[in-house]
Amino acid sequence: MANKLAIVISCAMLLAAACHGLEVGYYRSTCPRAEALVRAEVKKAVRADAGSGAGIIRMLFHDCFVEGCDASVLLDPTAANPQPEKLGAPNNPSLRGFEVIDAAKGAVERACPGVVSCADIVAFAARDASYLLSHARVSFHVPAGRLDGRRSVANDTLLFLPGPTSNLSTLVSGFATKGLSAEDMVVLSGAHSIGRSHCSSFVPDRLATQSDIGAPLASLLRRRCPASPTTANDPTVVQDFVTPRKLDNQFYRNVLARRVLFTSDAALLSSRDTGRMVRANARFPASWEKKFAKAMVKMANIEIKGSGVGEVRKNCRLVN
């Protein structure tokens, strides 16, 4: 029964991707080594620093929610566009992994110049980081065929990326705007089982004022974070103090135990439906792993650029 369910889920994922013009194995004839080359660079980076893998998973979310999955988050500031997404408050200075994408793009360009989009590389890299950080428990195929966008505006990040102080209503509506369900939102929140956060992302609304954060965690965080974080004094802490280097369902146990950093994490218990999802994900790790894989593919299909609108960048940091 489990195998049949996995087949059904895989077919549904592939069908959904096909509806967006994407295809698993898209580069099989034009650049057959593309995915292996990306995987090699991600593996090298994650072995050196697991945090880079967490950053890459977050990068897919931050890319796809602004302008769609088009690598617009990778663009550097230029005279013509001095404030791209990369400099938006949700991304600067916390978003990381750009150098891993650069390395992957370089390897692919040497093998197949001008063929593989940066947007596809980000999607491949997020898949590979998920696989590596979950100890091979989260495994899925990534349909490809995305094109890279040319528009990237810092202010858009504030419009479309739900922040750490978001309440449940804001989270649900923000994901719905991008075609994702409340369950997708809860499932993808499990990525908070890895990575780090700056103190400024949670101190003002979780420590400086009354909140439901558990006393033991609050005490630990007060020892590690200044009472009023500033740009010059804004340390980072792990998001999951139990299994900080593993992508797993520990996040949901932390939510239930009031051991989460963000208001947006605690908000998952503020409705009966999302609370039920949290408890199910905490109890059934294998089920959450499958749902996370499916939700990652769904997220990577947001607002795909068509020909004439997008391009295949030669350099992921600059438009052609």
TrEMBL record:
This is Peroxidase. Ca(2+) 1 binds at residues 63, 66, 68, 70, 72, 85. It catalyses: 2 a phenolic donor + H2O2 = 2 a phenolic radical donor + 2 H2O. Residues 1-21 form the signal peptide. Its main location: secreted. Gene3D superfamilies: 1.10.520.10, Peroxidase, domain 2. Keywords: Calcium, Disulfide bond, Glycoprotein, Heme, Hydrogen peroxide, Iron, Metal-binding, Oxidoreductase, Peroxidase, Pyrrolidone carboxylic acid, Secreted, Signal. The record marks 58 as: Transition state stabilizer. Ca(2+) 2 binds at residues 240, 243, 248. It comes from Hordeum vulgare subsp. vulgare (Domesticated barley). The lineage of its organism: Eukaryota, Viridiplantae, Streptophyta, Embryophyta, Tracheophyta. Disulfide bonds join 31-112, 64-69, 118-316, 199-225. It comes from the Eukaryota.
